[in-house]
Amino acid sequence: MRDIAVTLLIVATLPYILKRPYFGVLVWVWVSVMNPHTLAWGFATELPFAAIIAALTLISMFINKDPKNLPFTPVVIVFIAFVFWMNVTTILAIYPELVFDQWKLVMKIMLMTFVTLMLVKTKKHVQLLIGVIVFSLAYFGVKGGIFTIVGGGEHRVWGPGNSFIAGNNEIALALVMVIPLLHYFQVITKSKLAQFGLLVAMLLCAVAALGTYSRGALLAIAAMGIFLWLKSQHKIRLALLFVFAVPLMLANMPAEWSQRMDTISTYEQDGSVQGRFNAWRVAYNLANDRPLIGGGFEIGTRELFSRYAGDTRDVPRAAHSVYFQALGEHGYVGLGLFLLLGFLTWRSGVWIIRNTKGLNEYKWASSLASMIQVSLIGFATGGAFLSLLYFNVPYYLMAAMVVTRLIVEKELEEKASLAVPVVTSEPSRHLGEPNHLQPITRDSS
Fold first, then answer.
1. Per residue in 60-108, pLDDT tens?
2. Three-state SS across 2-40?
3. Which of 168, 291, 357, 399 is deepest in the core (most CB within 10 A)?
4. Which residues pair with 423 in a beta bridge?
5. Burial status of residue 261 (CB atoms within 10 A of its CB: 0-12, 13-18, 19 or more)
6. Rounded to whole angstroms, how far apart are CA atoms 57 and 62?
């Protein structure tokens, strides 16, 4: 029954995708982030929904006559360079026979990010995009939070199977990232009931993140929480929430959870942490051997671990860090482009906040830029311990930031151009006074 429901729901969106290409972006984000078909148990789990939606969106782009230009901002230019460099490192990979599947997966994500940049054009489009991301992730947060509370935290929270966020650590990071985006909708909505519902969802997402038993998530929550408070327009209210809610959540977690979190301070004795350090050494030593191009995709092999690991007894494993993953797979050039992409995205947020200060009609843009920044802080912190370099949500948030800046920039320029000095031809009412320039502002609406 669940398979039929999911299939019918996705099929029902297809005509709308053909009519409105940006609707295809929204459906793609929903399917690729939430993976609703994996929540079924039968035939729907095997159907290529994402590929069908992507293909139909591309077809709709070509048959639709609306403008579809790629915005060549500094962020987008660096993004293009990053994607180009990933293709270079793929061609020159150490194991070219192993990289195709991963390359295909990554390029699908990057292609649809470009499509997002081309089709998402308006405030409505941006808010729908963020709303789909929020719904797709908050679903697991609300569900996982209730599961953790009812079960007393005895069992771990996991993400949807066969997805980027299937593991407990990965879903934890995704839930940390969605909390600021929930707060964004809480800020811009006027309904008290909706604000309360969003607050409950935020708390349940935090509980679910703790219920994953992820140590990286605990660090990410701490970093995200600090920046959320700094960026929030309701600092006193948020501080009171932290003071009362955080100790209550921690106090109700079981002893097993506390013991696992305690290993953060005794990482020297933790085999899992030391294994990650060893994987970081492999990426670092490999990059020093091939500084420009790294090793390409799929470098977690026993051969490379034997060659580059400090402890050759350790089993081969993933990089467990977006930074060392970028370094090992794409060299110092790839790491540099990835860091520059994050920096320029952050700076775009700074521009939006600075240029909309005091302008109530752009509160949505300022709040969104702030909360995307907070979300990316969560990703930058938690991602230091996870192999999520190709996780799609940060790239969609980057696109939302770019488009939001373009919208604000265009509208502010239009408003400035309408405030022009006009020469008055009417004689002065006062004897002896010359005619003068009188500024006039036209209503932009």
1. 999 988 888 999 999 999 999 999 999 999 999 999 999 999 999 999 9
2. HHHHHHHHHHHHHHHHHHCHHHHHHHHHHHHHHCHHHHC
3. 399
4. 437
5. middle
6. 9
Q: Which two tokens stand for residue 168?
A: 């407990």
Name residue 397's amino acid. L
439 forms beta bridges with 421
The amino acid present at 313, given as its one-letter code, is R
Q: How far is 26 from 34, CA to CA, in rounded Å?
A: 12
* Cβ density class 213-252: b for 16+ within 10 Å, e for less: bbbbbbbbbebbbebbeebbeeeeebeeeeeeeeeebeee
How far is 382 from 173, CA to CA, in rounded Å?
A: 6
| Residue ranges per structural domain of the chain | 1-68, 72-268+316-413
> Residue 307 and residue 292: Cα distance in Å, rounded?
19
pLDDT tens digits, one per residue of 379-419: 999 999 989 999 999 999 999 999 999 999 999 998 888 87
Quote the distance between the C-alpha of residue 256 and its chain's center: 31
Spatial distance between the Cα atoms of 178 and 150, rounded to a whole number of angstroms: 22
Query: Residue 105 and residue 49: Cα distance in Å, rounded?
Result: 14
Cβ neighbours around 51 below 10 Å, total:
11
Q: Would you tell me the crossing angle of helices 215-231 and 363-382 to the nearest 10 degrees?
A: 150
